[in-house]
Amino acid sequence: MKAIEYLKYGLPDVLKLKEIEMPIPKSNEILIRIIATAVNSGDVRLRKADPFAVRLFFGLFKPKTNILGGVFSGKIEQIGSAVTLFKVGDEVFGHTDMSFGTYAEYKCLPENGSIALKPVTIIHNEAAVIPFGGITALHFIKKANITRGQRVLINGASGAVGTAAVQLAKHFGAIVTGVCSTSNIDLVKSIGADKVMDYTKEDFTKNGKTYDVIFDTVNKIVISESVKSLNVNGKLILSAAGISEMFHGLFVSMTSSRRIKVVTGVASHTADDINFLKVLIESGELKSVIDRTYSLEQMAEAHTYVEKGHKKGSVVITI
């Protein structure tokens, strides 16, 4: 099968198209023919080993996992002897968690992984981009217990996590302010934000307005300034935080006189979360936002574009 491998950390040109052996499913696994995947910020960080801490978990001198890609939409080609949840021919979408491997034509996954039947209302390209942003946003929204009537500000509202966070916060009844650049204002309004703030013209930390929750999806805020824009008992979500931001957040949570809580860490997920997103997609409450589409052979070009940090929603790879 065709796959994109990287054998060393570096620039996008370390991503090479190769012919490798097709995987064979174990008794509890399904073999998925990948029809679409996506390039996300996490893929870029792993490819570059930036921050350096990436190397501590994924290979000090070279990557231990040679095929990136954590999300997919596709069709089941084969099932293991013990599989009961799916059948051959099912169209599915989901998240591979830390096994990655969807920059390829086929991928084996345990049947009890973060997988669900693809929503019938959307095509594979649209389904593939939902799990990364959707799962990340859902994890932190649930962790922060966002509820009806709360005033929520989402920084980076036009990215993969941001567009999902806007829509999910609205689903849970929040009053949402999205922060983005001038060119993305109409997009963020179109997915349900009650108000959109142009960060090139207005700084939310200096306009005197306060919120119950501030959700930073892009790791581009100053924590000490942002917490001043939170109400008493407010919560600051740092979904893209590095190690230093996580420690800073822990310090704020422990010392804040206004009982501010910083929510951070790594998003976790199950099949129930993918199925939850599926229901919202089919009800029209959650929509995919796709910026560009590339072929598997154009993976290096796709990474180059994503690394610039200006994509709207997600970048799709068709296989």
UniProtKB/TrEMBL annotation:
Superkingdom, taxonomy of origin: Bacteria
CDD domains membership: MDR1
Domain Enoyl reductase (ER): 10-317
Molecular function terms, GO-annotated: oxidoreductase activity
SMART domains: PKS_ER
Name of the protein in question: NAD(P)-dependent alcohol dehydrogenase
Organism, as annotated: Flavobacterium soyangense
